[in-house]
UniProtKB/TrEMBL annotation, chains A, B:
Assigned EC number: 3.4.14.-
Protein name: Dipeptidyl-peptidase
InterPro entries, A to Z: Pep_S46, Peptidase_S1_PA, Peptidase_S1_PA_chymotrypsin
Molecular function as annotated in GO: dipeptidyl-peptidase activity; serine-type aminopeptidase activity
Residues annotated as signal peptide: 1-30
Enzyme class: hydrolase
Source organism of this protein record: Allorhodopirellula heiligendammensis
Family: Belongs to the peptidase S46 family.
Length: 692, 692
C-alpha cells in the first residue's frame, strides 16, 4: 500500500523537509518524472508517445483530482460527488467510524441510500484550483544572508503573509509550496471539502488480500478501492469536473497517466544526504517503527476489541516499515552510492571549471556539513507520538501563536491554516484509554532512553514516577481526549490553557520550550539546505540543460508511462491479473489467514456471477511514490482505467532513484472495480453512477 | 516461558558474563535465594519453615535434577530414564526433528513404544555429580596484577588445566564456575547424556495456550510439559535417583522447593552497572530483538512451510523480547535505582570508615568506568547471528585452537569442552537455505549499519555487493550447512579449513582476527569486573554479615517458597487454576487464534474424560529466573508436585530484584500433567511409568 508511508509518519517523526531539486531532462530515465500541472512535459510526450494534451484535457484532469489531507489521493468519478480512492487511504476513516459492534474496516460497508452514507470525522479533501508563481516576492523578503534561523523566520513570514492575503481574497485554502529545493515558490489555491461521507468499502480481506506478505509485491489481486462522496450544505456536491469511467481494460503498451499527490522524493539528494539517510535517519526510523509495530501487535493480542482498535495504526506502521526497509536496502548496495558519486563528481568538476559556477560548488560541502548536524539532532525530539499529547501540544501552541502577528507564527497556526487545523483538533474520532496509555508510556520510555534519565526535562516529566505511572496518571486524568473539551479549551480564554491543571496540558507546557528550541534548530538547518540546494539547482541547470520536474511535495503532479510487464528471477511477470488469478492465489495459500478471500467473493463465484476473466490489477511504468495512493490512472482520452494502490518491491528505491527495469506502479483496474460492485457487492445502483 | 530468554541469546549476543555476587542474608527478602547445593540455607529453612533437609534428601534431589544444555532444566521421573521438562525447552528439539510433512511442534507427539521414540539431534543433558572448591588454585595462578588481559589469560589457563585434569581423571564433564563474582571458584563435575529421545509432547495450542498475550501472565492454564528419555548404549538408561510423583495437588501455603539451573542474575550489580543495562545494553538488545522478530514474522508469512521453519526461533525471540521489556521497564522506574543507590551509598560509607576496607571502595568506581567501556564496545561485535556463519567460525577457531597447548585455548575449545562442542557442530538438525539467506543478509546489513559502510572489514565483506547478494552467494555456495561436510572439515587436515574456498569459511577467515581482537577486549573487561566485584563481595560480607547465595550461573541451585496468591489491581489472584478454568479462558477469548484449545482437549471434555476440577497450574514465591524452565517443584518429602515454566509479569525484574509482593513463579501441576496424559493423550502406559 503506498500512501501510508507518508501519512503514518507525518505526525511526529521529523519530516524530511529539505532539498527538493530539479532533475534535468538530460538525465531522465524513460518515463521518469512527476510533473507540475503548470509545466507539463509537452515536448517529451509528443516526441515519445506522439501525444499532445490539450489545455482542457489537463484542466479537466486536474480539477477531477483530489487530495486527501490524511495522506493520499483520489478523484471525482461522478457528477454527484463520488470520490474514488484506496481502501487503505479510507481506512483511517473506516477505523474512526467503527465501533465494537460495527467493524467496517474488517467487514466493509455499503450505503444503500444517501441517508446511509456515514460522515468522516476529520477528513479534508482539496482540489487544486490555481497555481501562482511567488518566487520573486519570497526571495525579496529574505534579506538576512548570515543568520539561517533569522532567514528562516523571514521566509516563513513571507509565506504567512502571502497565504493570508490569498485566503482573504479568494476564500480558498492557500499554501506556498517550495519547489526545486528553494529555487521556486508557488502559491497553490485549493477548494476544500470537509463534509465527506463513506459510501462503499470492501472487506479488508479483499482490499488487502495477501496481507503484509503480498504488500509491495506483484502479481497482485487486490480490490484496494473505496468510494466516498463529498457534500456541500448537507447535499451531495455537484461536481463539474469528474472522470469518465472507461469500459475497457488496459492492454500491454497502453499509454496511461497518473494524476495524484506524491508525498516526498529525494531524487537529487547529494551523495552525502543519501549517506545520512542510509547511516542515520533510516536505521533510526526503522528501529522506531519496529518498536511501535511490536507494541501494537502486543496490544492487539489482548482481545478482539483491542485488535479492532489497534488495526489501522498497526497496518500503517507495517506498511512504512516495509517501504523503508526496501529503501534502506537499496542504499546499502554500494553500487547505488557509487553511481551517484560518479554523477556528482562529474557535475562538481564541470562547475569547478566554470568561473561563474565555481563559487557555487561549496554548496555540496555545506549539504555534507548539515547532514552531520541533522544526525546529532535525530534523537532529541520531544514531540511524543501520542494523540493525547499531540492534541495538548497543538492546543497550547495555538493559544500562544494566536497572541502573535500572523506573519510571525509557525506555519500550522496562521490564519490561512486555521480551518484545517481546527478540523483536525476537534475531530470526533474516538480515542481509547487503554491504547492511549500504552502508547504514551512507550513514548515517555523512549524519551528517557534517547535523552537519558538525568536529562533535566526527563527528570521533570517523570518526577520520580515510572513512564507507565506518568502515562496512566495523564490518560486517567485528562479530558483532552474528549473532542467537546478540546473545543471548549480552544474557544475559551487562553488563560484556561496556560493555567490548566489537566495533566496532558501540564505535560505539553513542560515540553513546549524544548519543542520550540528544537524546531528553531530544525528550521535553521532546513533554511541552510534550501539555500545550498538552490545553488546546486542552478549549477545543474546550467551544466545539464533545462529543468525537468521538482522533487515531490505532496502537491498535484502528472506522471505517465505504459502498461508493461517485467523480467524477474529468469521469468517474465505479465502486466495484468484477473479475478481467476485471485481465486488461484487464495487456493495456493490455503490455511494462511491473510490469503482467505471474503465470503462475498466465494459466494458470488459459486453463484457464477463473476466473469473470472475480468481484469483486476495491472502495472505500469509511471513514476509514483507514497502519497500517490488513490490516484486515478487515465488513458489518452482522460477516462479512468485504474486506481493506483502500490508500487512493487523493486520500486521501493524510487524515493531517490527511478528505474523502469523492474520497478512498477500497481493499480486496481477500473473494469475490475465496476465488476466487483455489480457482481460481488450488489451495488448496481452505485456502479451506475460512475462516470456520470 | 522462562528459559528461552537465556537460550536464545547465548549464541551471538555478547553474554553478560560478569559480576555474580553475594547477597548477604541480612538483606534477603522473604523467600529470596538461589542456593548452592553445597551451601544450603539450613538454618533459614529450619527457622522459617521448621524444615531440616537431610543430606540424602538433598543428594537425591540433586541427582534427579537435569540440565538441558540448550538452555533449560528438567528432572528424572522414572527408573527407566524419563526426563520431564517444558514443551518450550523441548521445542528446540521438536523443531529440529519436524519436517514439512510432520509438524511435531504444532501437532504434538506420543511414542507408543521405545522404538517410536525419536532421537534429538544435538541435545546434551547434564547431571551434577560433584562440586570441588578450587578457589585457591585459581587465585594462585593469576599472578599478573597490572595487565587485565594478561590476567584473564592466566585465569583461563588455570580453568583449562583444572578442567582437563578432572576430565582425564573422572571422564566426567568438568566446568570451573565463577561464583560471587570471582570470590570463589568451584569445579562442577557432570554425568553427561547425549542420547536423548522424544517420548511425548502436547500440541503447542495446549503448551503455549494464550500465546504471546498470556506469556508471563497469570492466571494460566498451560500444559507446558514434555517427556523425553535418556538412553545409554541404545537402551533406556537405568536411573537410580529419580523423583517420586506426588498424587496430591498443592495447597495454599505449602512449602515447595525448586531444583534447577537459573541462567543469570544481576542481583548485586552496582548502581552504575544497572544504569549501563538501562541506558545501553537493554535498549540495544531490544532493538535487535525487535528487528529479528519482524524479520522472522515476515519470513513466516511466505507459506505454511516457512511458518513451520521459522516457528521456534521466532517464539524464542518473542519470549526474550517480552522478558527484557519487563526488565527494562523496572529499571526505568526511578525508584528502583534510588533504592539501590541508598543501599550502595550506605555500604560505601560504612566501608570508607573502616581503614581495612577503605581501599576496596575504589572498586565501585572501577565498575562504573568499565560500564563506559562496555557501552562503547556494544555495537562492535562481528559474531553474526547466523547458523552457517557460526558453524564456519567455530570450525575455523577449533582448527586454530587445536594448534595451541590446551592451557592457552579459548574456553569452548579445550580438551574438556571438545565433546560438547562436537555434539553441537555435527548436529544433524536441518538448516533451510531460504531462512539462512534472509538471516545472514540481515546480519550483514546490521554489521554495516553498526560499523559504517567505510569500515575496512565491511568493505571487504561487501566487496561491492549488497548484503543480500553477499548472503545469497554464501548460502548458495557453502557446504557448511551440511553436517557431513562439517564433520569432514573437522576430521580432516586443518589446511583444508585454512585454505578452503567455501564462501562461508572465507567469510569466517575474514572476520576471525576482529572477532579475536574484540574478544580479548571483552575478556579484559570481564577480568577487571571480576577483580572489582571480588572486592565488593569482601566489603559486603565484612559489613553485612555472612554470605547468602551467589548470582545465578546456569548451574544447579535450590530455591524455596510457598504456594501463594497475590493482590493485583484491587483484587486477589488465587494461587491455583484447574482444567475448568482453561475451558472458560478459551471461551472468553473466542475468535482469537492463540486461545483455541486443541481438538484433543475438546474431544476429551466432550467425552467426559477430564476431571475439570483437577489442578492445572499454580504459583509460588520461590526465587527463579530464565534457565529454571523445566525445573521440578518438589514438596517436603522430595516428591514432584509441579514443573516450573514461567514467571509472572511482576517477576520480570527479578534479574536484579527479588520481591514477593506480587512476583511469582508459575508451574504446571504434577497432577495436571498426569491427568492430561491419561485422559487427553491416551498415554496411560506412559503415565504409569512416572515416579516408578
Amino acid at each position: 500500500m503506498f500512501c501510508r508511508l507518508f501519512a503514518s509518519l507525518s505526525l511526529a517523526i521529523t519530516v524530511i523537509t529539505a532539498s527538493l531539486l530539479s532533475s534535468s531532462t538530460a538525465r531522465l530515465h524513460a518515463d521518469e518524472g512527476m510533473y507540475l500541472f503548470n509545466d507539463l512535459p509537452r515536448e517529451l510526450l509528443k516526441e515519445r508517445y506522439d501525444f499532445d494534451p490539450s489545455q482542457k484535457w489537463a484542466d479537466d484532469l486536474r480539477l477531477a483530482s483530489v487530495r486527501f489531507n490524511s495522506g493520499g489521493s483520489g478523484s471525482f468519478v461522478s457528477s454527484n460527488g463520488l470520490v474514488l480512492t484506496n481502501h487503505h487511504v479510507a481506512s483511517d476513516t473506516l477505523q474512526k467510524v467503527s465501533t465494537k459492534e460495527r467493524n467496517l474496516i474488517r467487514d466493509g460497508f455499503l450505503a444503500n441510500s444517501f441517508d446511509e452514507e456515514i460522515k468522516a470525522p476529520d477528513l479534508e479533501l482539496n482540489v487544486l484550483i490555481e497555481i501562482v508563481d511567488v518566487t520573486q516576492r519570497i526571495d525579496e523578503a529574505v534579506t538576512n544572508k548570515t543568520d539561517a534561523e533569522a532567514a528562516a523566520k523571514q521566509r516563513q513570514a513571507a509565506f504567512n503573509a502571502i497565504e493570508s492575503e490569498s485566503f482573504d481574497k479568494t476564500g480558498l485554502r492557500s499554501d506556498v509550496v517550495t519547489l526545486f529545493g528553494g529555487a521556486q515558490y508557488h502559491l497553490y489555491r485549493y477548494k476544500k471539502y470537509t463534509d465527506v461521507r463513506l459510501v462503499w468499502a470492501p472487506e479488508t480481506a479483499a482490499a488487502f488480500f495477501g496481507g503484509d506478505a503480498d504488500n509491495f509485491e506483484y502479481p497482485r489481486y487486490n480490490l484496494d478501492a473505496t468510494l466516498m462522496r463529498v457534500y456541500e450544505n448537507d447535499k451531495p456536491a455537484v461536481i463539474d469536473h469528474f472522470l469518465e469511467w472507461s469500459s475497457k481494460p488496459v492492454a500491454e503498451n497502453d499509454l496511461v497517466f497518473v494524476s495524484g499527490h506524491p508525498g516526498r522524493t529525494q531524487r537529487i539528494f547529494t551523495v552525502e544526504a543519501l549517506e545520512y539517510l542510509r547511516d542515520h535517519r533510516l536505521p533510526f526510523v526503522l528501529d522506531y517503527l519496529r518498536r511501535k509495530e511490536i507494541l501494537l501487535q502486543q496490544y492487539r493480542l489482548e482481545s478482539e476489541e483491542a485488535a479492532r482498535r489497534g488495526r489501522d495504526e498497526l497496518f500503517g506502521i507495517q506498511n512504512a516499515r516495509k517501504a523503508y526497509t526496501g529503501m534502506l536496502a537499496g542504499l546499502q548496495d554500494p553500487q547505488t552510492i557509487a553511481d551517484r558519486r560518479r554523477v556528482q563528481d562529474r557535475l562538481i568538476a564541470a562547475a569547478g571549471a566554470n568561473p561563474d559556477l565555481n563559487p557555487l560548488t561549496q554548496a555540496w560541502q555545506e549539504i555534507a556539513e548539515i547532514q552531520q548536524e541533522k544526525a546529532a539532532q535525530l534523537s532529541r525530539s520531544v514531540s511524543l507520538r501520542s494523540d493525547v499529547f499531540q492534541y495538548a501540544l497543538s492546543i497550547l501552541l495555538l493559544a500562544q501563536e494566536d497572541q502573535k502577528p500572523n506573519a510571525d507564527r509557525l506555519a500550522e497556526y496562521t490564519d490561512a491554516s486555521r480551518d484545517s487545523l481546527l478540523t483536525r483538533l476537534t475531530s470526533e474520532a474516538p480515542l481509547y484509554d487503554d491504547l492511549q496509555r500504552i502508547e504514551l508510556a512507550d513514548e515517555i520510555a523512549l524519551l528517557l532512553e534517547r535523552r537519558g534519565m538525568s536529562d533535566p526535562l526527563v527528570v521533570e516529566v517523570l518526577a520520580g514516577r515510572s513512564p507507565q505511572q506518568v502515562a496512566a496518571e495523564i490518560i486517567d486524568g485528562t479530558s483532552v481526549d474528549e473532542f467537546a473539551k478540546r473545543r471548549e479549551l480552544i474557544e475559551g480564554e487562553p488563560d484556561l490553557i496556560f493555567g490548566s491543571d489537566d495533566p496532558a496540558m501540564r505535560l505539553a507546557r513542560l515540553m513546549e520550550p524544548e519543542y520550540r528550541r528544537l524546531r528553531l534548530i530544525d528550521d535553521g538547518l532546513s533554511e541552510r539546505e534550501k539555500q545550498a540546494y538552490a545553488k546546486i539547482a542552478r549549477v545543474t541547470t546550467e551544466i545539464e540543460g533545462t529543468t525537468g520536474y521538482p522533487d515531490a511535495t505532496f502537491t498535484l503532479r502528472l506522471a505517465f508511462g505504459t502498461v508493461k510487464g517485467y523480467p524477474e528471477n529468469g521469468s517474465f511477470v505479465k502486466p495484468t491479473t484477473d479475478f481467476a488469478g485471485a481465486f488461484e492465489h487464495a487456493a495456493e495459500h490455503q490455511g494462511q489467514e491473510d490469503f482467505e478471500l471474503p465470503e462475498s467473493w466465494m459466494r458470488a463465484k459459486q453463484e457464477g456471477k463473476i466473469d473470472l476473466s475480468t481484469q483486476l490489477n495491472f502495472v505500469c511504468t509511471a513514476d509514483i511514490i507514497g502519497g500517490n495512493s488513490g490516484s486515478p490512472v487515465v488513458d489518452r482520452g482522460g477516462a479512468l482505467v485504474g486506481l493506483i494502490f502500490d508500487g512493487n518491491i523493486q520500486s521501493l528505491t524510487s524515493d531517490y532513484l527511478y528505474t523502469d527495469q523492474q520497478a512498477r506502479a500497481v493499480s486496481v483496474s477500473g473494469v475490475g472495480i465496476r465488476q466487483a460492485l455489480e457482481a460481488i457487492y450488489n451495488a448496481k445502483d452505485l456502479a451506475d453512477q460512475l462516470g456520470k
